Records
---
Amino acid sequence: MTDRSLETVISTREEDEIKVPPMYKILLLNDDFTPMDFVVEVLRLFFSMDQEQATQVMLKVHTEGAAVCGIYPSDIANTKVNLVIEFARSNQHPLRCVMEEN
Ligand code: TYC
């Protein structure tokens, strides 16, 4: 019998494949009431953008109706959407934030 103790055995079984997790886009949606500065703050706080990038994304939402602010696995996307909505609510702003499968 062959001694395989020092060999690397690579499985080709389908069940052993490491799958890439499905990714979700997070979008901010425009409205007529949320202040621009507040949206910029949201993008800095929850999406780690700098002032310039956050301003660009906010203006894209403002002019086009929506823009992607990040792409994440489902758990992280879900948590971020909830945090953004809660932060907006607690500041009495109607800002909407949604996720959709990439
Ligand atoms: N349209 C808002 C205004 O004029 C600004 C705004 C931008 C609101 C992006 C929401 O996701 C948004 N104050």
---
Amino acid sequence: MTIFAKILSGEIPCHRVYEDAHVLAFLDIGPVSDGHLLVIPKEAKAHLHELSDDSAAAIGRVLPRLARAVMAATGATAYNILQNNGAAAHQAVMHVHFHIIPKLASAGLGVGWNAGKLDGARAQELVASMQAAMNR
Ligand code: AMP
């Protein structure tokens, strides 16, 4: 059982900001910046790609509203949404979660971005392969 499952069941407390039938949002206990919020589905899945369409839709519906609330509470005019999948991608809690991290003058998410250059032949392969996967 993950720590977020324990929060959902009420076994562990949280600083709850929002809750509906499918979603819970609460303050991150180790904020990267002031106002750092976590948004989780109630569905117990480790990774985004495992989520049901209903959970995904419920999160998508409320994320912009929660981002506006974070901005209003902190005065931030910029923020990052971070969503890690897999330990190799820095996921520590194996229950799907979206971070909303305000970018403040003093603090915020640091991003390493080693951009390459898209190869035309590889792009064609990728498009065909992803489209086939979407149609399965
Ligand atoms: P990630 O690396 O994407 O899995 O991030 C997990 C996040 O969960 C971290 O930012 C932690 O600070 C946060 N976290 C862990 N336990 C709790 C908790 N009990 N309440 C609130 N946030 C938590």
